[in-house]
Design goal:
It is a single chain. It contains one helix and 30 strands. The protein is mainly β. The strands form nine sheets. It has a four-stranded antiparallel β-sheet, with no helix packed on it. It has a four-stranded antiparallel β-sheet with strand order 11-12-13-14, with no helix packed on it. The protein has a four-stranded antiparallel β-sheet with strand order 15-16-17-18, with no helix packed on it. A hairpin with a 5-residue loop joins strand 27 and strand 28. The longest helix has 4 residues. It starts with a strand and ends with a strand.
Amino acid sequence: MTRLIPTCANLHAAFVLPDSPAVTFASGKKQIGAIMRVKIVVLTVAMFLPQILQAQLNHPCGLAFDSGGNLWVANSGDNQVLELNPANGSVLATISLGLNNPQRIAFDRYGTLFVANNSSSNVTIYRNLQLIATVASSGIQNPLGIAAGDYDEFYVANNSGNSISVFNIDGELLETLTADQSGFLFTAPGALAIRGSNLYAGFGPGFGENAVISYNAAEFLTKNPAEKRVYTDFVNTGPTGIAFDSSGNVYVSDFYSNTAVRFNTQGVLSLVISKGIAQPEGIAVDKSGNIFVSNATPNDITVYNAEGTLIRTLK
C-alpha cells in the first residue's frame, strides 16, 4: 500500500499569468484595478512519488508467507493482520475487521487466510482481504495455534483449553482431543503447522515433552494420533511458531529461551539463533531459505540468512 503525501518541501515553482482585463459589473460600475496576477503552483514530480508506508509493528505474533512470497503478520497489539513486502517491511494491505488480539495465522492451499483471535476465542477467515466467516465454538478457547489442512479442514490449538480441535471448512467442530495415543496430554499448546500429511504441534515449557511433536494429521480425525517425531533442544523453550524450508527442515521460535532453532528432518538440532531475538512469537521461512522471526518485546521482525546471520530488521 502506498499513498501520495504532498508536502511544502515539494513545492517547486510558479508561473504568472498575463494581467486580466478590468471587470465591468451589471451595474455599469467598472472595477478599477481589477487586475489579478494569479499564481499557479506547480508541484514537482517528487510530490507524486509514492511515500512508502512502513509497518508500525505492535506486539507482532504469528507469521506466514502467501503463495506470492509476501509476508503476513498478526500485529496483535493493534488488532490487525498486515501484508508486508518482506524486503523492506512496507505495508501492502491491512485487515482489521473481526480481529481481537490475533495471535496466529495460516493459509490453506487456496490462499484462504485463517486467523486465531485469542481474546475473543474465535477464528476469522478471509479471502481476498474480505471477512467471509467467523467461527466461534466451545472447541475454541484462547487459541494460540492455527493450521489449515489439505482436506478442507483446519486445526486450532486451545491454549487455555489444553486441547487441539479440528473443524471442517464450514466451521463445524469435528473433534477435540486432549491427548495423543501414548497418553501425552496436550497441555497449553502454543503453535501449530502443517506440512504435507503431517501436523506439528508445540507444547511447553514445563509440560510433558516441552517440544514440537509431529503427527499424521488424518489420525486426528480418528481420535488416535500417534507421535511420529519429537523436536526439542532440551531446554525450557516455549515454542510459539513452526515453519519449514523447501528441504523439510523444521524451524521453531522459542519464547522463553529467546531463540529460533532449526532441526533437520530426523529431528537433530542444526542451528540456534539468538542475536536480535526477544520473546519471539512467530517464525517463517521464505523460498530462498531466509528466516523471519517476530519479536514481541522490541516490536520488530528480524531476518536471517540460512546460516543464521542477521541481515535486516523490519519495524
